[in-house]
Amino acid sequence: MNRIKTIFDTKSKKLMPFLVAGDPSIETSEGAIVAMAEAGADIIEIGIPFSDPIADGPVIAKAMHRALGKGVTPAHAIGMISRVRSKVDVGLIAMVSYSIVRRSGGTACLDRFAEAGADGFIIPDIDDIDAATLSAHCEAIGTSFSMLVAPTTPLCRVEQLSNLSSGFLYILARTGLTGEQNEMPELSTRIAEIRSVTDLPLAVGFGISTSKHVEQVHASADAAIVGSALVRRMDESKDAALAAKQFVSDIS
Fold it and tell me: Is the pLDDT of residue 207 over 90?
């Protein structure tokens, strides 16, 4: 059974921190993954550096560009996943642009990540036709494949996205770019609507920044995704892995 499905089947409320592979270094990212797993993370989302990140706000975009400036490539991220896989039991999800996937061989690219130990994929800029191909391939190789659902997505479209997905659906808490926010929008009504058209677990991201936000997400959804707040905390610390561990502990 895929690790992502097992995690959602066996624990009611999940925490999914996000980091950028290679920021500030591949070695530090590897250490941060291990540290966050120890602190209580259930699934860790690994952003693969890309020059034009989709929907990412300034904090994550800058982290992507810092990693690219240091020469970090998808191959480096795959090597990191391979090394860390034996050290942690948490789920590992690669968030990767379809431009990278297409350039790197399509399904062969996903195979390399999966062989290294990735449990699933989020490809935020993929269209339905290509998503259908990669979703079927992910099912064949035993990994999850999660599409994004915006606050404005009609329920008929949510159902289509659900049919392309496995593991979980990624629910955007708000429109616009990722980034830290002071307040959370009301989620329960939207989550209830989405549950009426899918049985997949629902993971909520975009603006989840504090332990209170995590609690609000967990009141109606299955997982809270935390990105910009964590990436900023790591960037501001002299020990990024320790900062990641403390942040996860604080919001768990």
Answer: no
- CB hemisphere CA count around 75 (13 angstroms): 4
- Tell me which of 181 and 16 has the higher pLDDT: 16
Rounded (5°) CA angle 221-226-228: 145
Give me the CATH topology for the region 3-244. Answer: TIM Barrel (3.20.20)
The per-residue pLDDT for range 157-166, each reduced to its tens digit, is 999 999 999 9
pLDDT tens-place string over residues 34-49: 999 999 999 999 999 9
The helix (H) or strand (E) run that includes residue 81 is helix 74-85
215: annotated active-site residue? no
Q: pTM of whole model > 0.85?
A: yes
213 CB-near residues (< 8 Å, 6+ apart) = 181, 184, 207, 224
Catalytic residue list contains 56: yes
Q: Which of 42, 45, 119, 180 is catalytic?
A: 45
Provide the 3-class DSSP secondary structure of residue 251: helix
Extents of the domains making up the chain: 3-244
* DSSP assignment letter at 73: -
> Residues 30, 42, 56, 222: which is the catalytic one?
56
